[in-house]
Specification:
Strand content: 5-15%
Order of helices and strands: HHHHHHHHHHHHEEHHHHHHEEHHEE
Structural class: mainly alpha
Largest sheet: 4 strands, mixed
Strand order of the largest sheet: 3-4-6-5
Radius of gyration: 25 Å
Length: 547
């Protein structure tokens, strides 16, 4: 073995060790976060629905989301001591409460069991980020992308929850990566891309926004594969070959959606929920989708949500109805500055550098289309609806490495410094990833001044609140305004509701979720204004002293 071969082997081992270390950091950060957090608002619904899938094989709960994400959650619950009363007949919110808090199990252990499969999937998507970026720019670019992904506060925050946002984003990224690889081996990678697209569609309906984009990428990949092979088919074959490839990918994706429903209930028993909104105009096309009836009815449920008027909070202002710029503004607050700089520079490189331009449709276009679609939503409730942005942005950032490799040394140093800056920003917020904001907006402690809901306070800190009250304020009278799905009594919190008694009787400690505070009515606002803030929990709950 020559000295050069030894050197190359050593570099490969070094790269492999760094990849393992970054994935291990991601796993540790998510694990440390998951074990400390109580249920967020959406999790009990998904956990309860997953238990119904396991025990009753019924599709009646949570029809607004397809089954695959909840089936993934169910793989963890299958090994947990969880029981559902066969006579239970409540709604999906009551179902989650029943499973977690009333079935006799340990709610913390059940929740961790439900979160573990999503955490494992999030780590695997980290490998996809690395491989996608490595395919574009080489191993160094792959490491940059993986580092930005592994230290992303949004990825860690939502990848450690039993929710659907990271899984759907990861499946869409995987589909785009496999289509990029299909440019060289279409027979191998196009079917796999169809499986990944189907998994996204079977996890969350927001993935439908990618359906017009990915078939176009199939056409690009087939044409590139033909050019690479040197084949020169006739005009008819040049037309039919891409169409056949698109049809194959779409059919595989549709099959995955059908299978996800049939796994839950092979007989596909379904009774439409009462009050299902009618679909008119363009929305009526949903009834023509070649997908199971529960999927199409679930889409109508989503339309009903979109027709509601939701309140929002951005940069200290409460408002009704959506703001078209809400998601870009929230992403600007909640994405590390190093990631923003490298991601945007990488996006520019993808468009401006000829040798990278072929990758732009695979990296930038899906993310842009998904973001534009998400910006049309009436629900300004958090960057989790656009968690795909920092993921695709991490892949785009790898292209900076390709550019600086031919530049001066200072450019490589600047790139490394930005990666370290992004990692340091993430480490500083540990373990409070959900309320993270970057340094330009005051850091994690000030996120609640600019954003609300799942950006800051999604009900995740009941356990921490119980510990804080026990350590610092034992035997004090507690009044609690909590926004979340957890049950305070299950954590040993004995508190009254200050909104049900005259203000003069509210004395002692007033504990208010920050998301409740920003939407406070006159009664709660008067209580807060007449109190003195003395403590905070998880940068999401404020403790006040009442005179």
């Amino acid at each position: 073995m020559t000295v050069g071969q030894v050197s190359r082997r050593g570099r490969r081992w070094a790269f492999a060790l760094v990849v393992v270390a970054l994935l291990a950091e991601l796993a540790v950060a998510m694990s440390a976060t998951a074990v400390q957090q109580s249920p967020t608002i959406d999790e009990p619904v998904y956990v309860g629905t997953a238990v119904v899938y396991l025990e009753q094989h019924s599709l009646r709960y949570n029809p607004e989301h397809p089954p695959l994400g909840k089936l993934i959650i169910a793989t963890g619950l299958a090994f947990a001591d969880v029981h559902l009363d066969p006579a239970f007949a409540g709604d999906q919110a009551q179902l989650g409460r029943h499973v977690l808090y009333e079935s006799g199990g340990d709610p913390s252990r059940l929740l961790l069991a439900a979160r573990l499969p999503v955490m494992v999937l999030t780590v695997l998507f980290g490998l996809v980020v690395f491989l996608f970026a490595r395919d574009l720019t080489g191993p160094a670019g792959g490491l940059v992308a993986l580092a930005l992904y592994a230290f992303s506060p949004d990825v860690i925050a939502h990848g450690s929850l039993a929710t659907l946002d990271v899984p759907v984003a990861g499946f869409l990224l995987t589909s785009a990566w496999l289509l990029w690889r299909a440019r060289r081996r279409p027979v191998r990678y196009l079917p796999l891309a169809g499986l990944a697209l189907g998994a996204a569609l079977a996890t969350k309906m927001s993935a439908l926004a990618a359906v017009p984009v990915l078939p176009l990428l199939v056409v690009l990949s087939v044409r590139e594969a033909r050019r690479a092979s040197g084949a020169n088919p006739d005009r008819r074959a040049r037309l039919l070959e891409p169409l056949a490839a698109v049809a194959g990918v779409v059919l595989i994706a549709i099959a995955v959606v059908w299978i996800s429903y049939l796994v839950v209930d092979p007989r596909l028993r379904w009774e439409p929920p009462s009050g299902l909104p009618a679909a008119h105009g363009v929305r009526a096309l949903a009834d023509w989708l070649p997908l199971p009836r529960p999927y199409r009815d679930g889409l109508r449920v989503q339309f009903g949500f979109e027709d509601q008027v939701w309140s929002g909070f951005l940069f200290g202002r409460r408002y009704s109805g959506p703001l078209w710029y809400y998601l870009p503004a929230a992403l600007l607050v909640k994405t590390p500055l190093g990631t923003l700089a490298l991601g945007l520079a990488g996006a520019v490189a993808l468009v401006a550098v000829p040798r990278l331009r072929r990758a732009a449709p695979y990296v930038l276009v899906p993310a842009a289309v998904l973001l534009v679609a998400a910006m049309q939503s009436s629900r300004d409730l958090g960057v989790r609806y656009a968690v795909f942005v920092p993921i695709f942005l991490a892949v785009a950032a790898a292209c900076v490495v390709d550019v600086v490799a031919v530049r001066r040394r200072w450019a490589r140093v600047a790139t490394a410094a930005l990666v370290v800056f992004a990692a340091a920003s993430s480490l500083r917020t540990f373990p409070y990833y959900l309320p993270y904001s970057n340094e330009a907006f005051g850091g994690t402690a000030e996120t609640h001044l600019r954003l609300h809901d799942s950006n800051v306070d999604w009900g995740q800190d009941l356990g921490r609140l119980a510990d804080r009250l026990g350590e610092r304020y034992p035997h004090e009278r507690i009044w609690l305004v909590y926004k979340g799905s957890g049950v305070p009594e299950a954590y040993g919190i004995d508190a009254g509701d200050p909104l049900t008694v005259p203000a003069g009787r509210v004395r002692g400690l007033l504990v208010v979720s920050d998301s409740a505070a920003v939407k406070a009515d006159e009664g709660l606002r008067a209580l807060i204004d007449g109190s003195t803030p003395i403590d905070e929990v998880g940068h999401a709950i404020t403790i006040y002293r009442r005179p």
